[in-house]
Amino acid sequence: MKARLITAALLLLSLPCLAQQASEDWPHYHVTGAADARWDACVKKGFDLFARGSVSKAGAQFDKAVKAGCPDGLVLFRLAACHYYDGQPERALALLDRAIPDLDSRYPRSLHRAQVHNLKGIILMEGGKPRLAEAEFKTALKLSPSFSDPHNNLGKLYTMERRRGEASLEFEQAIQLDPKNIQAQINLGILHELDGNHDEALAACNKALSLDPRDP
After folding, report:
1. In this predicted structure, what is the pLDDT of residue 21?
2. ∠ at Cα 115 (111, 119), nearest 5°?
3. pTM score > 0.85 for this model?
């Protein structure tokens, strides 16, 4: 059981995050966003690189666009994500605060509005501000009730606070909304192990490993 749990936890650490819909960013931006010939080439390169996982290179392109005057909330959000991945949470938070009003204005029906609050909650949680993080996750869910990631992150927050009953409900809700949410499956397994429920923990971790697209 221990080896299985470790394998699942390592999978959790290696999973790409914030990649949802990344390949659709350019057409979405081109139709709805602040498209302008002065920065569009950098924005397009940034979206393409981000979708492929080249975060630092994507960040450099987004940074050029923003310095050229691009005010677009989606571009600011992706640049914030790049800074977060590169270990610069404070810069990411500042960009997220700039991104939110523009996303609300330009992309009112987009999942990105919920994603930006979810990322802000993650940064606040990791920065030791649980109540502010909780509020951001709940805002994300208010904006997109079918978005599973904020439930998973609330579960992580409640686990850290030893609110295990509430954590379990959040992980289960995340899995119900998205049965392929590997992170929620792993986190539920870890929670079961902490509670001494070894069979349930093993079942959750096996489920997570079976969902790993890299598993032959």
Report:
1. 56
2. 175
3. yes
